[in-house]
Design a protein that fits this description.
Blueprint (H helix, E strand, L loop, with lengths): L1 H8 L11 E5 L2 E5 L16 E5 L7 E2 L12 E3 L7 E2 L13 E3 L10 H5 L4 E3 L5 E2 L2 H9 L12 E3 L10 H6 L4 H46 L5 H5 L1
Parallel strand pairs: 2-3, 3-5, 4-6, 5-7, 7-8, 9-10
Antiparallel strand pairs: 1-2
Subcellular location: Membrane
InterPro entries: Leu-rich_rpt, Leu-rich_rpt_typical-subtyp, LRR_dom_sf, LRR_TM_domain-containing, LRRNT
Membrane topology: Single-pass membrane protein
Amino acid sequence: QAFFCLLLCIPWGSTCPPSCQCTERAGAKAVLCSSRHLEEIPKDIPRDVVFLKLDANSITRIPSNAFRHLSHLEEIDLSRNAIEKIDGAAFKGVAAGLRTLDLSGNRIRSIPKEALLALKAKLRLANNPWHCECALQEVLWEARLDPDAVRDITCHTAPRDEYVGKPLLQVLDAGVNFCSVRQRTTDVAMFVTMFAWFAMVIAYVVCYVRHNRHGACRHRRCLRPLPSTQAHAE
């Protein structure tokens, strides 16, 4: 009975992942999992954690709802990992309370804008091999980026070679608009598609007319040899 009573008295979510250290900072729970060779986000993080450090590991992906059960979370440090993919709903459930999100020093080339634009947290995105495109431009203009690190968001690849190696902010300040480029590309694709359909309709009409004309001519040729009614009468 004493054992079961002890289990009931333990607060839910007070366990600590075996590869991490759980402590307190300014009276709030902190889970420290730095440099633990983690390849994914631990599943058993306490629900009442406020500060979560997962930096300097080998995490490659942030799946959907990765932190949804951590309603008290205010800071996440995922810097210096090997993150390549971030799902659109990766930070669902923590967007309202999150104050800081560090994704710097990873392998992120692109990111769904819906994954970040709902966040009110200050973002650190520097030192990633970014592909400069419309989605990244929208994140830069609409998300809350750390002003101290925004100039370190560099174009690793881009639609034009002249942008490669330059800070994205510098490229945009020069008047480049990646979203308008994408819109022009979409417009051209739609025009080509419409032209192709129009050409197919014209070709069908031409073939239909020729077929009917050929059938009519053949029908007239078949009727010519027939003797007239007057000849029969004579």
